[in-house]
Structures are given as C-alpha cells and as structure tokens.
Design goal:
This protein has 335 residues and is α/β, with parallel strands linked by helices. The protein contains eleven helices and twelve strands. Helix 1 runs parallel beside helix 11, helix 9 packs antiparallel against helix 10 and helix 10 packs across helix 11. Bound molecules: glycylglycylglycine.
Length: 335
Amino acid sequence: MTERIAVVPGDGIGQEVVPAAVEVLEAVEAANADVDFEFVEADAGDAVADATGVPLPDATYDTVAAADATLFGAAGETAADVILPLREAVGSFVNVRPARAYPGVDAVRPETDVVFLRENTEGVYAGHENRLSEDLSTLTRVVTSSASRQLAEFACEFVDDDRGPDHGDGFTVVHKSNVMRETDGRFLEAVHDVADDHGVDADEELMDAFATKLPMNPSQYGVVVTPNLAGDVLSDLAAGLVGGLGLLPSANIGEENALFEPVHGTAPDIAGDGVANPAAAVLSAAMLLEYLGHDAAGQQVRDAVEAVLADGPRTPDLGGDASTAAVSQAIVEHL
Ligand code: GGG
C-alpha cells in the first residue's frame, strides 16, 4: 500500500535537514519491499509569509491533514501561525521528545535517556493573548481535564509498550501546582487519576526542582509527563545534556495522524551554510517509520544514525567539519 508523506521543510535549516531525511526514507523504501511512499511537498513559514502574506497556505494545511504522516522541518518567526495549526491539522494531543546521549558524542551527561511526553494543545500555547492597553498585555492559560487525561492515557500506554527502548514502568509528572493551583492542579489531578486507573506509578516533581535535578542526576528520570510550555523548555534543557539540539527528534501524535519534526528551530546563524546536523530530522523520520508500523526499518535508521554519530562524519555542532550532505550520505551507506 502506498503511504502518502507530506513534506514541509519550513524555514532556515529545515530546508537542509528535511531533504536529508527524505533521502534516508527513499533509501529505506528502496531496500524494503513493504515500504512504498508518495512524498508530497508543501510550503509554510516566514519565506512563504514574505512572498504571499500567508505563513500557512490552506493547501499546505489540507495536504498535512490528508497525509498518512508528515515530516516537518523548522518554524521561525511565524511558528505560532505554522507549527501550532499543523499540529492541530493532525489532531495531535502529545509531543513525544526523546533525549538520549549517543556513544561517541561529547555529552555533558552521557547517562541521559529521558522521553518527554508534552501536552500539545493547550497551556500558554492555546493562543489567548491580548494587548489590553499601552501598558498591559495578558495571556490566558488553558488546562482541561480531558486533554490532561488524554495525555495521561497515552503515557500509561507508552510505559506499558514493550516495543522500543525500556524507560521503566512508571513516569514523573512535572508541574507547578503550588503556584498555578487551578490550572496545574487540574493537570496533576487528572494525570494521577488516569495513572491510578491503570495501576501505573506516577511520581511528581515541581518543574523548578526538576530543572535542577535533571542536569545533576538525569538517570533518575525515564518518562516525564509535562504541560505544554514546560515540555518545550525542559526538553531543550535535556538537549544541552546530550550534545545539543541537533540530536533530538520528536513526534506529534494524534488519534489518526501524526507529524514528525526535529526539536530544533531554524538556526538562522548557520542556515544556508549546508552544515546543519541532520540527525534530529533523520531520527524523526525513524519515528515516522515506526508510527506507520515499519518497526524494523525504523530501527535500521536509528542504528545507522548511531553508527555515524559514533564513527563520523560529524557536523560542526558535534566538533566535526562535515556537511549535512556528507552525514546523510554516510547514514544512507550504513543502511
Ligand atoms: N522543529 C521545531 C520548531 O520549529 N521549533 C520552533 C518553535 O518555536 N516551536 C514551538 C513548539 O515546539 O511548540
């Protein structure tokens, strides 16, 4: 069966790492008789907004909504108008962000192996911001029991799933309910309630304490369940422990559709130089393969990335001098 993959590179280094990931998916397709992809390219982002006045054309939204899965690159100044609606287009309620150190990569904390399960629709990213006067702007934080419960249901299934790396049988809920009593109080209560129903252990940690404890002792955490903003920020903190944002993939999962993207943004300082690390985008493509049920192919891609991270070539963010193209070529050769 042909599976339709929407490809939306977005801005900055998204234009470099997404083609590298597609090259890897094409190599997977060539090597596996049961993998048959149709790639459909679509535009979004700052450059499209400059050219047309619209950061996310309706055609792109529709292409993503109709695809079997999407590979996205990076969003820049128009992130709120691009990636948030695209997550909505796939009905995503959770952003899965694994942060792990790789052999051969210089990491501040090589023992790090944490998966963030980030609420993906509400919190302070729900879009309720207002400028009320010359002096005053406000933001409404949205938390529903239903979205929190849906995230928690996913977390319980995630820790029960025997496929893929083992991150333990329970999870840690990160929150700030001692200050945001109503919103994070509701989040925490809903997550604990679902965990109790499933008989899953759910520890909890205040997010400021977590930000201290994670870098000091990352091996005490496996799966971490967070509200939206906290997951965005704390997963970037974890990236700093494992060698940088060039290594973190992510999956935005919905009931019937999903979108995969590196955790990094547009990296304007290196965009256009051809030296962006494609590992995060290629690992996102591995998550896409697994989401579509191509588990063995996903594992092959992970193994190939791991081998290249260990032996080189490496891009400058990892201390090497290789180009994006040289690294993706090496990954394809390992496949
Ligand atoms: N590929 C990740 C990306 O484009 N990040 C830009 C950004 O600001 N994202 C906000 C978010 O992940 O919620």
